[in-house]
Design brief:
Blueprint (H helix, E strand, L loop, with lengths): L12 H13 L6 H14 L3 E5 L2 H11 L7 E5 L4 H8 L4 E5 L10 H13 L4 E4 L11 H11 L2 E5 L7 E2 L8 E2 L6 E5 L12 E5 L2 H10 L33 H12 L1 H19 L5 E2 L7 E2 L5 E5 L8 H10 L15 H7 L7 H7 L2 E4 L7 H17 L5 H6 L3
Parallel strand pairs: 2-3, 2-4, 4-5, 5-8
Antiparallel strand pairs: 1-9, 6-7, 6-11, 8-9, 10-12, 12-13
Helix pairs in contact: 1-8, 2-8, 3-4, 3-7, 9-13
Length: about 400
């Protein structure tokens, strides 16, 4: 039986040589490789400043710190996202306002967000920022979020964890722009399963020099100068702590991976596009599934390939579908259990599933299929044959797939 993992990173000889060079060089933590990665990433994204951190969570946290979020204030967050997007709001004693996703692309619904912002303001709350998440690698309603933020004086912090690279334009004949172009601060993830990886890692990008300086300062204990330079010939031992910062810096070992992963980002994306198109070709006639599509004026990163079960037509439930694929050796996932359905947010804020009915309904349908550059087209053939067999039989029937893919 074949085994198709949910994800497998693509690490080349260049990354390995760079890491070995770093290990032999004797400087392992934040140093010249981090600065090289930051410079390359800011050029690639097209923003003036990039600060490398040990996670996207750290980037989101420090972005909120940089804009001055305070206890008791509110931040708009989509419920259809990972834990980090809202938990960083709670770090400040602030409150996340959880909002619906759009049916079309599962990105933040600006119309619903405005309704909930108005309600919060009527209750006397201060709404400070909005964090749109570009779901699965497809950039959401940038213009709508920007307009909404302007009306309510909100800072925009984009959670672009799925988006390196991803592009958008506002009009059919407009200029293509990189993700994060319209945000005050954009935050990226380099976790092991992301489009490029440093194992663990993240980046905060901005065109605002004050925000960049504050994020850099707070990323390493609030120390007033680059700590790593203290030990070089032109450095100085003396430093001052000017704020109670955090330990969020990226190490040179991680940056050594990132330098070369970044150089492969466009190649990785082209491969992901090719694989996603193959999935869509093979599954286009499966009426039990609703497939993801690239929205107009968007260039999808295809970090995730998320299908939706048509539960009215399907003979199997979502759990049976996932279990059936597992029997074929195919690993899948669910992105995401909406935040308002998790115990913490239910117990802390009293959320019920139907408080965000569209998001709750979509959650029951979604399954993420394996997608990564190292996959072969034949791997996708295998996954899709398994899907068709499970859905057509209404139960786990391995015979057909095993006959086709012996060994």
């Amino acid at each position: 039986m074949r085994t198709i993992p949910f994800f497998k990173p693509t690490i080349g000889d260049e990354e390995i040589r760079e890491v070995v060079s770093t290990l032999k060089g004797g400087w392992l933590t934040t140093g010249p490789k981090v600065r090289q990665f930051e410079s390359g990433f800011s050029d690639y994204i097209g923003q003036s400043h990039a600060v490398a951190l040990n996670s996207c969570t750290a980037a989101l946290h420090l972005a909120l710190e940089a804009i001055g979020l305070e206890a008791g204030e509110c931040v708009v967050v989509p419920s259809m996202t990972f834990a980090a997007t809202a938990e960083v709001v709670r770090y400040f004693g602030a409150r996340p306002i959880l909002v619906e996703c759009r049916d079309s692309d599962l990105n933040l619904d600006v119309v619903d967000a405005e309704k909930r912002i108005k309600k919060a303001i009527q209750h006397g709350d201060v709404v400070k920022a909005i964090i749109p998440v570009h779901y699965a690698g497809q950039i959401g309603d940038v213009a709508g979020v920007k307009e909404l933020a302007g009306r309510y004086n909100l800072k925009v912090i984009e959670d672009a964890a799925h988006c390196c690279p991803a592009h958008y334009r506002d009009e059919d004949d407009g200029e293509w722009l990189s993700v994060g172009n319209a945000a005050d601060i954009s935050c990226f993830s380099f976790y092991a399963n992301k489009t490029i990886t440093t194992g663990e890692g993240g980046m905060a990008c901005t065109n605002n020099e004050e925000y960049a300086e504050r994020i850099r300062l707070m990323s390493l204990h609030g120390i007033s100068k680059d700590a790593w330079k203290r030990y070089f010939r032109d450095g100085n031992w003396y430093y001052e702590i000017v704020a109670p910062g955090y330990k969020y810096n990226m190490a040179d070992i991680a940056a050594s991976l990132g330098i070369h992963q970044l150089r492969s980002a466009d190649t990785f994306r082209r491969r992901r596009v090719h694989l996603a198109e193959h999935y869509s070709d093979l599954l286009s006639d499966v009426e039990e599934l609703r497939l993801p599509t690239e929205m107009p004026n968007r260039q999808h990163s295809w970090h995730l390939y998320v299908v939706r079960l048509n539960l009215e037509k399907s003979k199997v439930s979502r759990n049976e579908f996932i279990s059936g694929l597992k029997e074929y050796g195919v690993s899948t996932s669910v992105h995401f259990t909406p935040l308002h359905m998790h115990p913490y947010y239910r117990e802390t804020y009293g959320y019920q599933p139907l408080d965000l009915p569209r998001t709750a309904g979509i959650y029951e349908e979604i399954v993420t299929l394996p997608l990564y550059p190292a996959m072969e087209l034949d791997d996708i053939n295998y996954v899709c044959d398994g899907i068709k067999s499970i859905l057509s039989a209404g139960k786990v029937d391995k015979t057909k797939v095993f006959e086709i893919y012996k060994g």
